[in-house]
Amino acid sequence: MVRREGEGRNATVITVGNQKGGVGKSTHSVHLAAALGKRGRRCLLIDLDPAAGSTKHLGVPVNSFAGTLELLTTDETIESLAVVEGMPDNVALIPARPQLSEIESLLSKYVDRTCILDRALDAARARFDVVILDTGPSAAFCTTVAAYSSSDWFLLSAFAHPLSLGGLTEALADIADVRRARNGSLEVLGVVFTAVDRRATRLRGQLEEVVARALPGRRFETAIPQAIVIPEASGRGRTLFQMPRWELIPSAIEYLRLAAEVEHRINNREDFLRGTLEPPDLDAEVASTLGHAVTPSLVVNG
Ligand SMILES: Nc1ncnc2c1ncn2[C@@H]1O[C@H](COP(=O)(O)OP(=O)(O)OP(=O)(O)O)[C@@H](O)[C@H]1O
Ligand SMILES: [Mg+2]
Predict the structure, then answer these.
(1) pLDDT tens by residue, 80-99
(2) Residue 23: CB within 6 Å of ligand 1?
């Protein structure tokens, strides 16, 4: 449940995943955290990928901080490891670095690999509203398995490309497998399509049909358009929300819409899972975050 300021916190834990590489997992992780942060939610982002996609996207120099490896293999706490300086509003990051790939050899042979996140998540649930886990592109890696095993929600990231159709079916089957074998309470929060070409309506329709067949009601209204400003921001170590005049960047607004959908689903979990949840008024949600309605004529730049 996402709680408002002043209430006791009990964070919900969202894994952003897909075993395919380069499908927008890290981009969604940082932007969803930043967008929820703009909505006043306190977010912890844990980078579970040795390739450190979220860490780099947030401009944290890889190798300069202890982070996920220490969180999972020592008694270090979230408070001592979280980076907050230079992060988007209300976002704290546990950074990753390449040595995270050696985690298997650092864990005691008696430790259950599926539970290595539990100590950290127990602590994080009390202090944050949302915990976002950015996973790497391999379900064989132990931090991915642990994320799948310990999360409340799975947000599936998929590129809107014809080659993604097969990958999407595979990813959905994989989540069903996780639910059967590891974590029966893991629910799919939704499938986010990214790099969507507005003209490719037929492709988008096909992708949405795959989701509708496998998981009725789990598609998001929001899709993230193809936008050069996203890799540009990433190259500068920032989210769109840290760019000048971000309110005029359409992709940033889409991420605000996505955050509103995410929060609505989490806050109304039972209705959502039953398939009876009415969609939120996304224009009103965005307007209230911005403090004013967006004027389409002002919108610039991807
Ligand atoms: N909407 C978009 N428009 C254009 N480029 C995008 C968009 N979203 C993401 N990208 C770019 O696509 C590339 C892959 O995205 P990202 O790193 O988020 O994927 P990933 O799934 O985390 O990859 P990996 O599996 O390697 O961790 C990045 O260069 C990113 O900047
Ligand atoms: Mg990544």
Answers:
(1) 999 999 999 999 999 999 99
(2) yes
